[in-house]
Amino acid sequence: MKTAFRSAICATLAFSSRFLNPTHHCHSLILLYRPRRAALFPSKPSPFTSMASADSSDAALSPTIHVLEKQFEEFRHQLDDSASLRERIRSVSFEIESATRLMHSSLMLVHQSRPIPEVLEKAKGQIDVLRGLFCKLAEIIRECPGQYYRYHGDWRSETQAVVSVLAFMHYLETESLLLHAEVEEKLGLNPSEFGLDTEDYLTGICFMSNDLPRYVVNRVTAGDYDCPRKVLTFLTDLHAAFRMLNLRNDFLRKKFDGMKYDLRKVEEVHYDVKIRGLATNAESKGDGEKS
Amino acid sequence: MKTAFRSAICATLAFSSRFLNPTHHCHSLILLYRPRRAALFPSKPSPFTSMASADSSDAALSPTIHVLEKQFEEFRHQLDDSASLRERIRSVSFEIESATRLMHSSLMLVHQSRPIPEVLEKAKGQIDVLRGLFCKLAEIIRECPGQYYRYHGDWRSETQAVVSVLAFMHYLETESLLLHAEVEEKLGLNPSEFGLDTEDYLTGICFMSNDLPRYVVNRVTAGDYDCPRKVLTFLTDLHAAFRMLNLRNDFLRKKFDGMKYDLRKVEEVHYDVKIRGLATNAESKGDGEKS
Amino acid sequence: MKTAFRSAICATLAFSSRFLNPTHHCHSLILLYRPRRAALFPSKPSPFTSMASADSSDAALSPTIHVLEKQFEEFRHQLDDSASLRERIRSVSFEIESATRLMHSSLMLVHQSRPIPEVLEKAKGQIDVLRGLFCKLAEIIRECPGQYYRYHGDWRSETQAVVSVLAFMHYLETESLLLHAEVEEKLGLNPSEFGLDTEDYLTGICFMSNDLPRYVVNRVTAGDYDCPRKVLTFLTDLHAAFRMLNLRNDFLRKKFDGMKYDLRKVEEVHYDVKIRGLATNAESKGDGEKS
Amino acid sequence: MKTAFRSAICATLAFSSRFLNPTHHCHSLILLYRPRRAALFPSKPSPFTSMASADSSDAALSPTIHVLEKQFEEFRHQLDDSASLRERIRSVSFEIESATRLMHSSLMLVHQSRPIPEVLEKAKGQIDVLRGLFCKLAEIIRECPGQYYRYHGDWRSETQAVVSVLAFMHYLETESLLLHAEVEEKLGLNPSEFGLDTEDYLTGICFMSNDLPRYVVNRVTAGDYDCPRKVLTFLTDLHAAFRMLNLRNDFLRKKFDGMKYDLRKVEEVHYDVKIRGLATNAESKGDGEKS
C-alpha cells in the first residue's frame, strides 16, 4: 500500500516533466536522471549572437534572451533524454526479437514430428530470458510515467511476436487459447505499471493462427488424423470470438481477415481426412452426438 | 494536495484498465463509464457453438469457453470504449481546427496593413473558445489516465496550428517569442494533467516562422522599413535556439530545415531595404539606441 | 399519381440547388433545410477588407464585393450541407455494416453443420433492421434528388456485403439465385427513388460465390455428399450468366475472375466425392430424375 | 410550364431505369435507345448449358433458368448502354479538352505583352465551340436523368480547365472574378438540368490563380507597374473568400493551399515594384487613403 502511494505520487510529479515548465518544482526530478548534462551546458558559449553581439551591454534586453535560452536548454535536455530513452528501449526490443526468434526456431521442429514435450522444453528455456527483458523494459518506462504509449511503437511488433510464440506453445500443450492475463503472468508484467496492450495481444493471436494450417498438414502427414478436428474446433471458436469485436484498427482488422484463410485451410485438411475415412474412429463419437 | 493524491491513485488504478485482466479488481472502475453495455451483453446468444454443439454435455470444457468468451467480451468493451473516446477527441479536434482557421483569417489582415491592435482584437476573441475546447480535451483524456500519448495523434496537428497562430499574435504584440509555458497558460492547460507536448510546441513555432517572410514583405510594401531588421533579429535568435537541439524527430527536423529559408528570405528583404538607403533613418535611430 | 407528379416537380427544382445561382428562384427551397445558418451569417464581419479598406468611398466597386461575398456564402452553405449529409450517410452505412456483420456471424454456423432453418432464423432477424436502415438512407437521399450517385461511394461496399449475405441465405433456403428485384423487395427499396445499383448487386453476388467452396467442403465433412453436385450446378449457371456480360468495370471484372476459382474448387470437391463412390446413391437418384 | 411538367414526369420514369426490374413498366423507355440488341439477343443460343443440356425437356426447372437468364440479359443491356454512354461522354470531353487547349494557347500570348483585346478575341472564338460541346454533354446526360454524378468523373477535370480559362479571360477583361452563374451562362448550361458542380467551379478558380504570378511578372517586365497592386487586391479578396469555406474535399483543399503561394509571389512582385519606387504615381492615391 505504501509503495502504491509512493509510485502514485511519483507518477503525478514525473508526468509533468513531459512538458516544458522552467519554473516547475519537478525540475529536481528531471535532474535525477541526467545530472551530467546539466553541468555541461552552462559552460557552453551562448548561441544567441545576433542580439548578444549587438547588445552585450544592454541590460534591458537580457531577460528575454535568458528566458529564450533557458527554455531551449530545457528542450535540449528533454529531447536528448527522450532520444537516449528510445535508444535503450530499442536495444531491449532487439534482444526480445532475438530471443523470440530462437523460440520460434525450436518450435518449428514440431512440423518435423518431434515429440511436443521435447519441442516445448527448448522453447520454454527462453521464457525466463523474455521475463528479464520485459522487466528491463518496464523499468525504463517506469522512468517516464504516463508515457507508455509515447514509446509503444518501439516494442509493439516484437511483443506481438512474443504473444504469437507463447500462444502457439500454449496451444501445443493444452489445446486451448493462452489468455491475455496469462501472457502478462508468463512475462512477469504488472498490468498496473507496464501491461500488455490489448491490440498487441490480439494481433499476436492472429499471427499464431497463421501457423496452424502448416501444423495440421504436418501432423496428418505424420499419421495424426485426429489433429485437424481439434484444431478446427479451436480455430472456429477463436474466429467466432474475434467476430464479436468491432475492429476499427486497420492493421488488426487485416490480420483478422487473414485468419479466415487459416480456418478455410484447416477445414480442407479436415475434409481430406474425413473423405478418406481416415478419421473414422476418432470422430465416431462426435458424429454420434451430432446426428 | 489531497486532490493531487487522489487523482494520482486514481491514475494508477485506471492505468491498469487498459489491459485485459478478467479477474482484476479494477473491474468496478471500468463499469463506471459503460454500465449500459455490460448489462446488454449477457443476454446475447453465445457465438461459441462449435464446441457447445459437440460438447453440450461436457461440463469439463465449459469453463474454458466461458473464460474465452468473457475475455473477448472485455475486449469488445475496451475496443468500443476506445473507439468512442477517439470519436469524441476527433470531434473536439475538428472544432479546434475551425476556431484556429477563424483566428488565422483575422490575422491575415496584417498583410494588408491593417492596424495590429485591430487585427489582434478579432483573433483574441477566439482564445476563450480554444480554452474551452482544450478543457474539453483534457476532460476526455482524464477518463483514461496514462493514455495521453495513445490518442496524441488525434489532436497534434491541430495543436501545432494553434501554437503557430498564438505565437504569431504574440510576436505582433511583443516582438518576442511566446514561450511553451505561456501557451499552456493561454490555453488553460494544466501541465501535470494535460500539457503541451514539447515537439508540438516546436513544430508550431516552425510554422509561425513560415509566416514571417510574407509579413516582412508586406510591411515594407506598406512603407514600414524598420520591420525587416526587427524580424531578422527575432528569427536569427530563434534559429540559433533551435540549433541547440539534437533533432531526431524527422518531421520536426524537416520543419526546422524550412526555417532556414524563412531566415534567408527575411535577410534578403533586409538587404533590399538597406542597400537602397530606405532603412537609414529608421536604423540609425535603432543603432543609436543600441550603442 | 398525384404524388408522383409532385415529387417529380420537386426533383426538378431541387436538382438545380446543386449549382450556385444566387438569383435563382429555387432559393426558397434551399432555405427549407438550413434556416439557422442563413440567419447567422449576415451578422459576421465581412472578410473582404483589402478592397473595402482601399475603396471604402468607392460606391462603384461595392456591388462586386457583395456579389463575390454572396456567392461564397452560398458555397459555404452548400459545402456544409453536403458535408453534414455525408456525415449522416456514413453513420447509417456504419450501422448497415454492423447489422451485416451480425448476420454473417450467424450464417457462419452453417459451416459447423448446424441445421439450416436454425441458422437462417437468427440471420433473418436482422433483415428488418436492414430495411429500417435502408429506409433511413433513402430518406436522406430524398433530400437531394438527382444526387444518388454523388454519395454512392459512401454506402456501396456496405450494400455489396448486404447483397452477399442475403443471396447466401436465399441459396441455403431455395438453392437458387436471389434476384436483383428480390433484394430490393427484401430491403424495402423503391427503385423509382432509391434502388439497388446493378453493379453493386453483381459484386455482392460475386462475394457470395466466395463462400460456396467452404460451404461445400464443410457439408461433405459432415457427410452430406449430395451438396457438391447441387452447388456446382448453381455456380455453373451463375458463372455462365456472368459471362454474358461485357464487364468494363475493373473492380467487378476482378471479382468475377475470382468466381472462376470458386467454381474450380467446387468441381474438385465434387470430383473427390464422385471418384470415391460416395455420391453414388445420392446422384443416381438425381440422375434418374433427370433422364 | 407544360414542358417542365413533361420533363419532370420523364425524369421520374427514366430514373427507375437505372435499377433492374424486369417487370417494370418503364421497360418501353429503355427500349427507346437500344432497339437493335433487344432483337439480337433472343436468337443467341442459351449459355445455360449445365442444366439446359441435362434438362431440356424438363419443364419444371425452366422458370428458374428463364428468370436468371432474363435478369442477366437485362444487365447486359444496362452495362452495354452504360458503357456506350460513357464512350460518348468521353468523346465529347476529349473535344472540350482540345478546345480549351486552343484557348489557353491564345491566352498565353498575354505573357508576351500582346494587347489584351487581341489576345481575348482569339480565345473568345472558341467559346461557341465549348457551348456546343456542353450542349452535347447535357443532351447525353438528359438520356439518363438523375445520373449526372454517375458519370461526373468523365468530364470534371476538363470542365475545371474550362472554368480556369474563362475566369482568366474574364479577369483580363474586367479585373474581377467570373461568377459561377456567369460560367453557366457563357457555356449555355441550364442549372436545372445540367449545371456546373460547385467544387469544379472552385477548383477551376484555383487553377486560374496559378496563372496570375506569371502574368504579373511579365506585365512588370513590360513596364506595367500598376498591375501587381491590382492583381494583389483581386487575389487577396479571392483568398479571403475561399477561407470562408470548410473544405473537406482533399483535392480542392490542396489546390486552395496552392493559392497561398500565388498570393505570396504576387506580393513579392508588388514589393519589388514598390521598393524601387516604380509604382509611386499609381499608388499615391491608395497610399494617401491608407495613411
TrEMBL record, chains A, B, C, D:
Q: Which Gene3D superfamilies match?
A: Translin, domain 1 (1.20.58.190), Translin, domain 2 (1.20.58.200)
Q: Which CDD domains match?
A: Translin (cd14819)
Instruction: Output the Gene Ontology cellular-component terms.
Output: cytoplasm; nucleus
Q: Name one GO molecular function term.
A: DNA binding
The UniProt keywords, alphabetically, are: Cytoplasm, DNA-binding, Nucleus, RNA-binding
UniProt key word Cytoplasm: yes
The record's annotation in InterPro entries points to: Translin, Translin_C, Translin_fam, Translin_N, Translin_sf
Location(s), subcellular: Cytoplasm; Nucleus
- Name the predominant localization: cytoplasm
Whether RNA-binding counts among this entry's keywords is yes
Q: Which family does it belong to?
A: Belongs to the translin family.
This one is known as Translin-like
Q: Lineage in the entry?
A: Eukaryota, Viridiplantae, Streptophyta, Embryophyta, Tracheophyta
